[in-house]
């Protein structure tokens, strides 16, 4: 059985680390480069970097910040935000990332998934899914709808159907973020996580809602996720990566312990 991964997420706006609740009220909370280095030293399995306003502002990602982070860490590094073409993917990978994450651009142009997988391999292509719970309807039979542009635009697209299509197009991994749970620290949306895990055969990262290590354990056990994405609980110093992983291991999760 593969070890479950713990992945700190760095949401970046204007080159600074930021955090909000349910995609709103974001506040500046520090330097993403310093945070990435600290999480790497604490035992993070991977780092995710999102330029959260790049797509909405129709601009490219801040490659200088990507390069500075890549110089400080020696674990897999995934970068997303404003990636709309294979050329954008190449630029991010050349800046030091191992993976690229596409979200809004993939919904608008699904071919970017297959084009990226063909150019760089499926292992380098992560599709980020921002998901909102909605009433069940003919268009959204799962009750989970895909939204893009940082939660600003609802797409009338069923999340489970989109997950399956992403896999078919060559995505190597899905990062499923519940907007309803994001930043609340009340726990992951386990029903959503499990539904996506059961719908595909590629790894699924649970995102949105971690408030304590127990929630991370629930995401990889009850939710079936391959990894748990975390932000607030480590950004604000409530828990260290080490403490999170030790708690998960004590509960029975297989995690990589490096100390």
Automatic annotation (TrEMBL):
Entry annotated with the keyword Cytoplasm: yes
Biochemical pathway: Amino-acid biosynthesis; L-histidine biosynthesis; L-histidine from 5-phospho-alpha-D-ribose 1-diphosphate: step 5/9
Enzyme Commission number(s) of this protein: 4.3.2.10
The reaction(s) this protein catalyses: 5-[(5-phospho-1-deoxy-D-ribulos-1-ylimino)methylamino]-1-(5-phospho-beta-D-ribosyl)imidazole-4-carboxamide + L-glutamine = D-erythro-1-(imidazol-4-yl)glycerol 3-phosphate + 5-amino-1-(5-phospho-beta-D-ribosyl)imidazole-4-carboxamide + L-glutamate + H(+)
Keywords, ordered alphabetically: Amino-acid biosynthesis, Cytoplasm, Histidine biosynthesis, Lyase
Active-site annotation: 11, 130
Coiled coil regions in record: none
GO molecular function, one term: imidazoleglycerol-phosphate synthase activity
Family per similarity comment: Belongs to the HisA/HisF family.
Protein name: Imidazole glycerol phosphate synthase subunit HisF
Organism: Desulfovibrio fairfieldensis
């Amino acid at each position: 059985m593969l070890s479950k991964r713990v992945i700190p997420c760095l949401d970046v706006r204007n080159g600074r680390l930021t955090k909000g609740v349910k995609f709103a009220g974001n506040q500046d909370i520090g330097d993403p480069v310093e945070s990435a280095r600290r999480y790497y030293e604490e035992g993070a399995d991977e780092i995710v970097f999102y330029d959260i306003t790049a797509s909405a502002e129709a601009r490219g990602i801040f490659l200088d910040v990507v390069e500075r982070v890549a110089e400080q860490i020696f674990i897999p590094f995934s970068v997303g935000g404003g990636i709309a073409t294979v050329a954008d993917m190449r630029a991010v990978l050349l800046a030091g990332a191992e993976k690229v994450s596409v979200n809004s651009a993939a919904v608008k142009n699904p071919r970017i998934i297959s084009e990226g997988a063909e150019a760089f391999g499926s292992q380098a292509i992560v599709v980020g899914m921002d998901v909102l719970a909605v009433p069940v309807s003919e268009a959204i039979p799962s009750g989970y709808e895909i939204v893009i542009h940082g939660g600003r635009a609802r797409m009338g697209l069923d999340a489970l159907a989109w997950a399956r299509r992403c896999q078919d197009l060559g995505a190597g991994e899905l990062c499923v973020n519940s907007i309803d749970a994001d930043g609340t620290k009340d726990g992951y949306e386990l029903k959503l996580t499990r539904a996506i895990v059961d719908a595909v055969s590629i790894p699924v990262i649970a995102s949105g809602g971690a408030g304590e290590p127990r929630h991370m354990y629930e995401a990889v056990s009850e939710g079936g996720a391959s990894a748990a994405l975390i932000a607030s609980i480590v950004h604000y110093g409530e828990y260290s990566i080490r403490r999170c992983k030790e708690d998960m291991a004590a509960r029975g999760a297989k995690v990589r312990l490096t100390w």
